[in-house]
Each structure stands twice: as structure tokens, then as C-alpha cells.
């Protein structure tokens, strides 16, 4: 599975389910997001870029050249903060402008 949604952080805004190009994210009875078919997620990160609270983690597995860490975002007004946590818990931060976010 490439993404995981933390229902404790999710604010039920449905932005991730509206943006998912594979229609893989749905909502439960509490309107909290969950991924219906994790094996079908191709890791486009569209949901990460839309989530305003960082409830979605994208895992950086060895199969995609990662080290077993993960990344999540904080969606700000004009930019997106990308937070990368390596498998040994080192933290990195990248800031991208929203209007340029699909370049990365």
C-alpha cells in the first residue's frame, strides 16, 4: 500500500476523495476518508497535496527506491509544505508553491 489515511487526523473535508484520479478514496459513516483499494493506488500524491491537515501518509518503500520512510504534507494558502521522515526518523522539509506543485 502506498498511502495510509489517519482517521484521527482526518477532518472529513472530502478533498482527497474528490481529487483521487482512480476514485480509490471513499468516506465511512463518520465522513472520514479511507482508501477502498490500496493495491490499486499508483502513488500520484494528488490526495496528499489536497489534504489540509496532513492526515495522509505516502510510504517510501524500497520497491520505489525509498528507505522505508514516509511523507505527508501541510496544505497552506499559497504553498505546500512537504515533510519527509526517513526510516531512521530523520526529518526533511520542502516547500513548494501551489501553482507549481505538479512540477515536483
Annotation keywords:
104 residues, Alpha-Beta Plaits, two-stranded antiparallel sheet, 2 helices, mainly beta, five-stranded antiparallel beta sheet, 7 strands, globular
Written account of the structure:
With 104 residues, this protein is mainly β. It has one domain: Alpha-Beta Plaits, CATH 3.30.70. Helix content is 10%, strand content 34%. The chain has two helices and seven strands, in the order βαββαββββ. It has helices at 15-19, 46-50; strands at residues 3-5, 25-27, 33-35, 56-60, 69-75, 79-85, 91-97. The chain has a five-stranded antiparallel sheet. The chain has a two-stranded antiparallel sheet with strand order 2-3. β4 and β5 (69-75) form a beta hairpin. The mean pLDDT is 86.
Give the helices and strands, then pairings.
Blueprint: E1 3-5, H1 15-19, E2 25-27, E3 33-35, H2 46-50, E4 56-60, E5 69-75, E6 79-85, E7 91-97
Antiparallel strand pairs: 1-4, 2-3, 4-5, 5-6, 6-7
| CATH-derived architecture | 2-Layer Sandwich
Helix content: under 10%
Distance between the termini: 21 Å
CATH C-level label: Alpha Beta
Oligomer: single chain
How many domains make up the coordinates? 1
The DSSP helix count reads 2
Structural class: mainly beta
Residue windows where pLDDT falls under 50 for at least 5 positions: none
Question: If strands are numbered along the chain, what order do they take across the biggest sheet?
Answer: 1-4-5-6-7
Give the mean pLDDT: 86
Radius of gyration (CA) equals 13 Å
Could you write a compact summary of the structure shown?
By secondary structure, the chain is mainly beta. It has helices spanning 15-19, 46-50, and strands at 3-5, 25-27, 33-35, 56-60, 69-75, 79-85, 91-97.
